[in-house]
Amino acid sequence: MPYKLYYWGGIPGRGEFVRLAFEAAGTDYVDVARLPGGLQEMLALMKDPGAASIPFAPPFLVDRDLLISQVANILFYLGPRLGLAPQDEGLRHVANGLQLTITDLLAEIHDTHHPISVSLYYEQQKPESLRRSAEFLNNRLPKFLGYFERILNRNPAGREHAVGKELSYVDLSLFHLVEGLRYAFPNAMRVHEPRVPALAALHDSVAARPRIHRYLASDRRLAFNESCIFRRYPELDQQV
Amino acid sequence: MPYKLYYWGGIPGRGEFVRLAFEAAGTDYVDVARLPGGLQEMLALMKDPGAASIPFAPPFLVDRDLLISQVANILFYLGPRLGLAPQDEGLRHVANGLQLTITDLLAEIHDTHHPISVSLYYEQQKPESLRRSAEFLNNRLPKFLGYFERILNRNPAGREHAVGKELSYVDLSLFHLVEGLRYAFPNAMRVHEPRVPALAALHDSVAARPRIHRYLASDRRLAFNESCIFRRYPELDQQV
């Protein structure tokens, strides 16, 4: 029975980090909410009064009778099963620590356009978004990018990967992070990317992998848009 | 060799979730940065140019030659070793999913007083904090509390624990969450707590455990204060 991924259709969002793992491994999966009736199935599962394990929010994974929520948790579970995690248990926790730092960064990226509330539209929190985005681009983004660059440069197995000597789900997530940042903040990334060459090289090497290359060209890959975490609001980008 | 926890001294902060696990298990640990010279040791580790595994931020755990960062990751690692995680692998991922939802809530609590930037003082982002806190108390806090209440009520092994039939690190974290929320938002919690009786009962049962009871009365337990995640700014609390 294939793995079932439950996530909102129409945006790459947080579900994309899980999709990339399935796609890179060439593993069969069902992206449930993108099938006819799938959204209703997802919402029913989230509200099932008989279910013991209920997620706070999508994405979640169903593997037979197990329901696993939270992206980093899903990837920690899938990593060894898809051949996308280190063999060594200690290194698996190193990978998980990096994935959780990516999670933190994603939350900060989300809050550049929603600094006050997820219940309000961007347009209802625009002055705060302008202020938060400027702080994010000046202080936080370079700190996070520099951190991941150091992680790559210090990997004892080589700067081609974040952890260990093989592709892991952390590499795939870093690829998507760069993709999203380029979409949302093109001006800022033109300034910052040259300072993180190992991260940029990792991005390119992931994009060039045959399965990922085919996936990116397929209609399974959703385009970024302004309902996603990564949004292109030119007024929030670095001004040139 | 005892486990070494590295976290800022002077605040419970995120380190407290790890301390509670050690204390509940009666496990020997060193709270490094609270010892003379410990803060310097922590900062040196974070900047060590030779280290492969560097944390983005405290807390992190050192167990022999392994350095593990991110609270949920540390607890996932320690859980089975301290007897504070379910035996079943699937349930361990359920526990991790819950812990990561607590992590998300903590980030939202932090941002009630820092909605714009961690580089600025609260006083420099007070109008935004007032707006974000009101949204948090009206929409997000009841949603999260209601979620954890449902998790307890639907636990097939009984509502005394979040996962499985024994104490886990998730229970300890929920205890501290309630403690912190009572400190930061006493008015709001007086309204919300009666609606989540299983969560309130879990809080009390954790507090009554002999080792936790002794810990809370000891000088190892740091008091909440306005440098922590949970801050008591009366203007941000629900107005009565």
TrEMBL record, chains A, B:
Q: What is the lineage of its organism?
A: Bacteria, Pseudomonadati, Pseudomonadota, Alphaproteobacteria, Hyphomicrobiales
- Domain (GST C-terminal) spans 95-236
Annotated keywords: Transferase
What GO biological process terms are annotated to this protein in UniProt?
Answer: glutathione metabolic process
**Domain GST N-terminal span(s) in chain numbering:** 1-86
Name this polypeptide is given: Glutathione S-transferase
Q: Which domain of life does the protein's organism represent? A: Bacteria
Question: Does the record bear Transcription regulation in its keywords?
Answer: no
Q: Whose protein is this, by species?
A: Sinorhizobium alkalisoli
Q: Name one Pfam family in it.
A: GST_C_3
Per its record, what are the GO molecular function terms?
Answer: glutathione transferase activity
